[in-house]
UniProtKB/TrEMBL annotation:
Ribonucleoprotein found in the keyword field: no
Name assigned to this protein: Flippase
Signal peptide start and end residues: none
Sorted UniProt keywords: Cell membrane, Membrane, Transmembrane, Transmembrane helix
Amino acid sequence: MKVVKNYLYNAFYQVFILLVPLITTPYLSRVLGPTGVGINSYTNSIIQYFILFGSIGINLYGNRQIAFVRDNREKLTQTFYEIFILRIITILLAYFAFEIFVMSVDKYQIYYLAQSVSIIAAAFDISWFFMGVENFAVTVFRNLIIKIITLVSIFTLVKSTDDLVIYILILSLSLLLGNMTLFPSLHKYIGRFSLRKINVRQHILPSLILFIPQIATQVYLVLNKTMLGSMVSVQSAGFFDQSDKMIKMVLAVVTATGTVMLPHVANAYANGEHERTRHYLYKSFNFVTSLSVPMMFGLIAVTPKFVPLFFSNEFIQVIPIMMIESVVIVLIAWSNVIGTQFLLPTKRTNQFTISVVLGAIVNLVVNIPLIFMYGAIGASIATVISELTVTLYQLFVIRKIVNYRSLFIDVNKYLFAGTIMFLTVFILDGYLPSNWLMILIEIMLGIIVYVLMLIVFKVKIVDDLKKIIK
């Protein structure tokens, strides 16, 4: 039950941190327009590179290392401070590099400076610690007030395109304040530390090893927006970013299992329980498939009606982008289970690294011609191709470790149920008027049809859920 509880906490947290842009997007799309949204998207994509290089893989590495020593208070204290001090140093170096960058550009300087508060915020991000000790509640509740203040600030202070800098500052400062609120909860887990015993250097190499896959991951998460902004226009970057926000919102519910299961599997693996780690893999894979399939089909079905209502008619070009990009929901769900929940905690870091590096290379190679020919639609196609590459390679490397039949149990049933749900909603969508009530009816009908199909097909997860409820 602890895993289920932590999953719910983390799913709520992941959705919650995306909730501010979700709630504000319809308003901001109309106030800032495609150009304002595009400038924010493009400049933020550049800032993410500095945050990435300043973090050097510490989020994944810190989560795992804390999970390894969480039962020993003295080791836990020392490990936390060593990793935290390392992060402070690397973020300072990244900010120095940013200062050099911002002096060398002659466009969007004021926006870059406003975005740079996020780099400082990254130095104080200790969510990896609480994820390592499997306390997901604190990250949810500590940020609640900050997010509410953020929402109020946006609707109060952002009134026109002239307020773009204010909007960026609100988001950046909310990250900083949100991260700072986590520190008061540390005293429950760690004690005083001796500076003489601190050995930061021992963490540099292993965190750098995990940094390589994060670089590659960031390439096909952010590079699309950077390339669109440079090769096409900031408006195209904005269109792709709007689609990406919705996909990430849906994915947050699915990939929340990765953050929850990583310390759980790492702890089991450290205790030599290898069969148990495979059992976790099968369970997680089945669970995320059951969620990601209907989410993919459902989003594709309602997108034509959803986009103009949510983003406004100025963002009609988002429709085909989002429909294509929806395919990655299932692909990322699978690669998240295999990579984050199995390869990383079982110390198969090299295989995980190769998978995301391959994805990044494929993304870069196919992005250039596809963006040149099709703009933002090409970027969405490139994203699907790169995620497919990652997933296929990870499935290949675990072929001798796992039983594919156990891994893909009921997948065909989920896909068939999802297809029936999609056809039902898509056909109905053509007859219903375009408003929020109709979209809600379509979503509810889709859920009912999908669940009924799972019961009819007697999928295993239905029995598992009955046991959890009991």
